[in-house]
Amino acid sequence: MADERGASAGVSGGAPEAGLERPVDGWLIDDFRDPTHSRLGTSWRAVSDQVMGGVSSARMHRIHSDGRDALCLEGEVSLENNGGFAQINLDLAADGPLDASGHAGVWLIQRGNGADYSLHLKTFATRLPWQSYRAGFASTPNWTLVRLPFADFVPHRLDQPLDLTRLKRLGLVAIGRAMTAELCVTEVGFYRDAKIGGQ
Q: What residue ranges are annotated as transmembrane (predicted)?
């Protein structure tokens, strides 16, 4: 059974930045213009701890706001029945691993209810459902660009370091405490460096 329990990662690696331009040399995973598939050809899904007997809820829906298409996670996270998470996630490749070793981290443009969220990465080393690599960020009321360096991702319930050549899945997660989840993302991708600018 899936188990995504555990405290969310700290938010030190996810400081918001001014400007909403994509990072230079960024690899765009999704800008949510296609209502059914990401730029990688895979589809987002919503998952909660109900898969392991919990009572949290997770819903996803699409919006168009401020000229942007976005995907939103909404739900209620409960710690009852040993639960505690709601998420939207995306397989990064239909067949085999995705290699992001030429990149420095994940960027996303997000807005939410001010709560802390986690971005989880899974690789082919995360064989058990509760294993992942995690970095946290604080949501903001206005569209804000957040960069999460790969160096800030912390392994959860496994010892292997993050292998960027074998990425499998990316998830945006409300986890570890009772909360209302309200998070929208209008772009997500990998960036090569810290510069911000046009494509």
A: none
